[in-house]
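Bug report (template v2)

What were you trying to do?
Predict the complex of my protein with MTE.

What happened?
Run completed; filing so the output is reviewed.

Input:
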Amino acid sequence: MAAATSINTIDPRDIGTPDDWIPRHSEMVRLTGKHPFNAESPLSLLMDQGFITPVPLHYVRNHGPVPKLHWDIHRLVVDGLVSNPLNLSMNDLENLPYKEFPVTLVCAGNRRKEQNMIKQSIGFNWGPAATSCAIWKGVPLNYILKLAGVNLNDCVNGPRYVCFSGVDKLPNGFYGTSIPLEWSLNDVNDVILAYEMNGERLTPDHGYPLRVIIPGCIGGRMVKWLSKITISNKESDSYYHYHDNRVLPPEFDAERATKEKAWYNPNYIINYLNINSVITSPAHNEYIPLSSFFNNQMYTLKGYAYTGGGHKITRVEVSLDNGKTWLLSKLDQPELVHPAVLKRRINPIPRYWCWSFWSLIIPFHSFIRCEEISVRAWDSTQNTQPRNPTWNVMGMMNNCHFRVKVNTIPQGNEFRLVFEHPTQPGNNPGGWMVKPSPKLITSKPSDVSTINSQIPTFTINEVAKHNNEKDCWIIINKKVYNCTKFLKKHPGGTASILINAGKDATNEFTAIHSTKAIELLKGFYIGNLALLQSKL
Ligand code: MTE
């Protein structure tokens, strides 16, 4: 198992970004370039850690820079439709009753890259490791709400919502979202305001000093850097409550969604996690020499599974014949025997908040004539995963059968079986679903013919001088763009371009931009990087 539990160095990629004070694990795969930090652990490394993920390897989803907050001065305000507004310090919160238990967090974009390979969504390329499990400790939200004088009777006259606000101010306002009051008040739902993760205070990336944990729910509702809770008869008014974490019908693109106000259609909101499972062994590019087949050897297929709403994973099945027949795997559910859970399992109807692990031992020869290995999980509502993905404009909730291709490849005098996952996270190459990227991204920079033409070329040093609000150039795929006029119009805010001003922004750009943005970019093209000239 890789040593992963302690980190104290600043990653060079964070230097020059607003997050240059946060130590981060160097092996985390960055999905939106240098900044903001959106990252998942390599899948095999994540699995090596077992049930509880060490904090530095827990996936991170930050919409913007991490706020610098201090335990001693941070406050939580509770206001709105309450009879007793609260203004609590972190010490106040730490002295209240608490719950401590493991919860698996999942970003609703987990496995989005598979959808992006069908058609680019407006989201970046999560692989299958946008999920992790930690032990969270915090004050029950229902306890705080009762202190504020809120109770179930308040719902009699119409719906009530608990609106959470973070301190991170983003281009479209503060990050915030809401859940129904009934959900928050019901003790079996275990909603907590967490200040500890795996026995220590939260780290900046995971919401220090205070965040919401809503077990069984998508990560997007679990507001980090929590500073305010407002009880309202309306859902959160944060831009991010409506324009994030929605599954729109496949025929909607972003323009149509905005035109028809689909973002505000309550039918499209995502709260509970959906059922999902993934194959982690064999890993991508793992191989077996065919000679091993003669030794009666066995292979252990492995993976994870999770579901939402407190339901239980009841079985996981594997197919080696393209879904014609299914083999029952062995299910390992560490949550059921975890000391923190055994201590508190008092609910008459138990809730399950954590991932399970499945394994299946098969003889090597089962791979003969096997084209692909696929997996599907079932839960206590008899729900299972669909075979095919359903593309949606945000690329969310992808939970189709996870399919690993089995390729026979010649190697010297013999053949080996090489396993291929559907995708690899971020811009990492590989995966059977991966098609060539859009023209602009793959197109080579100007070659000899371009150099002889009239198109200007610029050296890296020249580009680097254009690094401010009044004069902002960036490099994408070895082409130079003057974005000064676009700065104020950028939907992601001026800062997200400025952070790359004068620099190579290829990773940042390709991670999140749609084909429409690629077209728009062409209007700002001013020349090529002079890299090739020196090679001539
Ligand atoms: N809270 C704030 N204030 N800002 C954010 O960007 N991201 C959300 C949620 N809470 C976010 C936030 C999303 S989309 C997810 S999936 C989870 O935080 C991720 O939590 P983690 O980074 O601790 O894994």
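What did the reviewer find?
Residues 438-452, 532-536 have pLDDT under 50 and may be disordered. The chain has three domains: 75-98+136-268, 276-331+340-420, 442-535.
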